[in-house]
Amino acid sequence: MLKTLDNALHLLRYFTRERPQWGVRELAREMNISHPVVYRMLATFERHGFLRQDEQTKKYELGITFLEYGAILRDHLSITQIIYPVMKRLAETTGESVILTWLDGMEGICLEMAESTQRVKYAMSVGSRTLLYAGASNKVIMAYLPPHVQEAIIAKGLKPKTDRTILDKDELLRDLARIRSEGWAYSVGEYTENVFGIAVPLFAYDKRVVASLTIAGPDYRMPADAVPAALRALKEAQQEIQTLLQRIQ
């Protein structure tokens, strides 16, 4: 299995600027692999959009999927560079850590983080993945997903991260509906013990939810009467970031 995967990935490296198209037989000769094996690999890549076959020449070339992945990578790299200064200012204003969580399939992924300067703080690793049904940063994304996607996430199983994680489907759906109605989410200890989160959604140009912006820290530093001020600062940052996103999308 690993040998097959290695050969398949090696095959893609033959598609270069200098040689963007290959026929089945000529690529088989170049790789010194049998024609049927090369054909199966090419057909599989074509089926998933990584390659396409020219209708006239019958040769293969890179497909639209690579363009999509390239755009995602380019956008994410530029997005973090553009958004981070806003996150840093918000972290300084609130004294808490600020997290940018990006939607990736049916999970969240920490794309960037501006840490609190306080001695006791909440931190998570950039690149770490999170479940969309637990914690403010995740649920504020899930709340804006289509119902069938919400159902698919729930169908995979609701597993507790802490004893405050909502595991009842109906209760979770009601919570998501409330979050969507109010436009922000607040949680304490749902994903990590003794950690609060206040989160707002971020949207693409076509109004699809793509990420969330979250203030997070030790729960003892965010009593109920401090939430409104933190939320105001968070929403100001949200508006600034949405303006930036509109300019680069």
UniProtKB/TrEMBL annotation:
Gene3D superfamilies: 3.30.450.40, Winged helix-like DNA-binding domain superfamily/Winged helix DNA-binding domain. Residues 2-64 form the HTH iclR-type domain. It comes from the Bacteria. Coiled coil: none annotated. One of its GO terms (molecular function) is DNA-binding transcription factor activity. One of its GO terms (biological process) is negative regulation of DNA-templated transcription. SMART domains: HTH_ICLR (SM00346). Keywords: DNA-binding, Transcription, Transcription regulation. Residues 65-247 form the IclR-ED domain. Pfam families: HTH_IclR, IclR_C. May be an activator protein for the gylABX operon. This is Glycerol operon regulatory protein. It comes from Brevibacillus thermoruber.
